[in-house]
Amino acid sequence: MRCLFCKADSSGSKSREHIVPESFGNSDHVLGPGIVCDGCNNYIAREVEKPILDSLYFRERRFSATIPNKRGRVIPLEGLHLQSRTRVQNHADDLTGEGVSIGAHPDADEARFIKSLLGDWSHTLIFPMAVAPENRALARFVGKVGLEALAHRLIQANLSHEELVDKSELDALRSFVRRGSGPRHWTIARRQLYLPDKVFFDGKDHYQMLHEFEIFFRPVDEVNQLYECYVSLVLFGEEFVLNLGRPEL
């Protein structure tokens, strides 16, 4: 067995790979051991997924959806209590999404914060406004999801993911994701498909959509059966589309 990213022998690898990280609520779409080797798995978690998960943009969305991290904790949002000049944290009370609570940051002066709360009638909380992660980090992440989603589709069709290992058309993206090399800019198309808190109904159950992804093909030359391959990744209602074969859309 060979790794989807580095192409090295991965027969001895033991780690599974989540196509969409667990911290985005994914427990179903997982690649088995060896499809992504242990080395690539560790690198991608640290250098590709972590910058996205740690970005304020997606931390806010994870907080609003009360999605716990691997340790079962919903990461609080950090802000400032203006009157006492105290750093504060906004905590999700539980995993039902029923409410939040504000408390002093562990490194802040809690006594000063409480004294201000008891002494003033009005209070102002300031939280930073999040902007999307920079394009390169986002493109590497979406490209990673695309390659793994393509492998997942082959496996579902009882085919081997190693067909992708031999596809030279995917080498540029492979290198871009795994090593950060190649083009400086890999284009992503973005649009909001639905609100992050939209509730869907399938005739039986009500639910919110945290993430979804799809692979689709666009004909370039139907006579010679040439197609471009794209991944569509939707996180909290926002769609990110990337061409798996080249940096341009």
Short description:
The protein has 249 residues and is an alpha+beta fold. The chain is 29% helix and 24% strand. The protein has helices at residues 38-54, 56-64, 110-119, 135-156, 162-165, 171-179, and strands at residues 17-18, 30-31, 77-81, 86-92, 100-104, 125-126, 189-192, 199-201, 206-208, 211-221, 226-235, 238-243.
How would you describe what is shown here?
This protein is α+β, with helices and mostly antiparallel strands. The protein folds into 2 domains: 17-55 and 132-243, no CATH class; 68-126, no CATH class. The protein contains 6 helices and 12 strands. The protein has helices spanning 38-54, 56-64, 110-119, 135-156, 162-165, 171-179, and strands at 17-18, 30-31, 77-81, 86-92, 100-104, 125-126, 189-192, 199-201, 206-208, 211-221, 226-235, 238-243. It has a 4-stranded antiparallel sheet with strand order 5-4-3-6. Strands 7-12-11-10 form a 4-stranded antiparallel sheet, with helices on one face. The radius of gyration is 21 Å and the shape is elongated. The two termini are 32 Å apart.
